[in-house]
Amino acid sequence: MNFRCECGQRIHDTTDYLSYKGYLISDQDQFDLLDEIDDAIEKSGPSSTDKEEAAMRIRSLIGTLFKTVYQCSNCGNFFIDNNHPRLEMFRGVNPVNRNLLMSALGDKWKGFIFAEWKDKIPDWQTSNGILYNETNASSLTVRLDGNGKYSAWETLEQDYYKLFNELKNKNAIRYSHLKKNNTVIHSWSLKK
Ligand SMILES: [Zn+2]
What we know:
By secondary structure, this protein is α+β, with helices and mostly antiparallel strands.
């Protein structure tokens, strides 16, 4: 889904790990949720089915109790999805902090990289290579040549590994994938 802020900025909600999306829980609900989590750990049965059912109950309750919120990264307006037909909008007081919904871990949040190259590209795609990354890590030394779009495989590959190595050294990455013509060239993910 996506919607437009009054400032003109379009706010997209089509992928995971968005830095401008969050969840809000009422104090009236928080203790009930914590009690349910305690019960799921302490009172669920020993079998894997029992544990799966307990986990599903928690996920379902989280889906019910949490309200989705968004912040416009351009003007800082705040939106709450309160199960009304429309989003409730709140305007901030200048200077507005536009990063209210970024991870509580700040620049220690673990991001990701996805890069893909295709020799033959579909009509709607404008470049052979794309590099998409999401990170809160600050003061990165790596400078990406392609600005997310690439017309040479070598440049894409080079930028991918530069970024991957820097984020890995900073312990600021959870997974990273590089594909070329549907073949996985490099794949890495954090061990759980
Ligand atoms: Zn706005």
